[in-house]
Specification:
There is one protein chain. By secondary structure, the chain is of the alpha/beta class. It contains 12 helices and 9 strands. The chain binds guanosine-5'-monophosphate (2 copies), manganese (II) ion and sodium ion. The site of sodium ion has 5 residues, from strand 6. Keywords: Phosphoprotein. This is Stage 0 sporulation protein A homolog.
Length: 254
């Protein structure tokens, strides 16, 4: 309960921070975008990782205002970096189940884009495979509405839920993100290697880009490059970092 009350007040008290983790083109090694990942900094307690409060935020519905704040902050930050003259990057924001089910999601997203001035093509929304497949007819409809705004869409944690390939093919998405549980075992587990390479082939045949998350070793990177994965994200290239640190990374590159 203490954590729930704290969570309720955290937005007003400005305790959330958005960290950014680079996404890299596997062939060029260049940063092409970043994932926005929220952090909660409680005074006198320190950083609470999202795994410890996102589920509670989801249960209480607080994820809706928190998620909208993350979306607005990430879009505003991305626009500020573009205005500062850095090469344009695409920012990816996670949508929770509750957010995805919101009746006014399209209005919320278009209002945020309007208010921040970010062009829709520089925003990507990630929804997990399990959320996408939960009510797949609704997902098809909602994803079309978002796509029609000019936003990019990605399926997150791919391979961990139950996918109907029939639906997957009908979703107007541009990317699949291979879950890190498969990537982690590249080099040690042949079954997970097979899953990773099969997801890449699946993505290619559906004309989707494939992103590998959780890339930590050169061996995993080489494997993914050999199998023509498009993008990667992981500690090998960079951990999620606060905005000042991320800006240093893009400054060094440009
Ligand atoms: O950021 P990691 O660094 O620990 O994130 C842990 C989990 O929390 C991930 O599954 C991630 O998708 C989720 N997460 C992080 N930030 C957000 C957010 O802004 N919104 C939602 N819905 N989930 C998030
Ligand atoms: O939204 P999603 O579940 O994809 O969130 C990404 C999660 O993966 C975040 O918790 C992020 O901190 C974590 N992450 C990103 N790169 C790595 C990595 O290389 N190794 C591990 N173990 N976790 C990572
Ligand atoms: Mn994600
Ligand atoms: Na994921």
């Amino acid at each position: 309960l203490a954590i729930e009350n704290g969570l309720r007040r955290a937005l007003d008290r400005n305790e959330f921070v958005v960290y950014y983790q680079p996404k890299v083109n596997i062939n060029t090694g260049k940063i092409i975008g970043m994932e926005a990942l929220v952090r909660w900094e409680v005074p006198e307690r320190g950083l609470i990782p999202p795994g410890d409060f996102i589920p509670l935020a989801e249960d209480t519905g607080l994820i809706v205002p928190i998620g909208e704040w993350v979306l607005r902050t990430a879009c505003a930050q991305n626009k500020a970096w573009q205005d500062a003259g850095y090469p344009p990057l695409r920012v990816a924001v996670n949508l929770s189940a509750r957010q995805f089910q919101l009746q006014n999601l399209v209005e919320v997203v278009s209002r945020v884009l309007e208010e921040t001035g970010l062009e829709p093509c520089w925003l990507e929304l990630e929804i997990t495979e399990s959320v996408a497949m939960q009510n797949a007819e609704y997902t098809v409809k909602m994803l079309y509405e978002l796509k029609d705004m000019g936003i990019q869409l990605a399926i997150d944690d791919f391979g961990t839920g139950y996918s109907s390939l029939n639906y997957l093919k009908r979703f107007p998405i541009s990317k699949l993100k291979i879950d890190k549980s498969f990537v982690r075992e590249i080099g040690t587990d042949q079954d997970n290697e097979a899953i990773a390479s099969t997801v890449i082939v699946l993505g290619q045949s559906l004309k989707l880009g494939v992103v590998a998350e959780g890339v930590e070793t050169e061996e995993q990177y080489d494997f993914l490059k050999q199998h023509q994965c498009d993008e990667m994200q992981g500690y090998l290239f960079g951990k999620p970092v606060p905005p000042e640190k991320f800006e240093e990374m893009i400054r060094r590159e440009s």
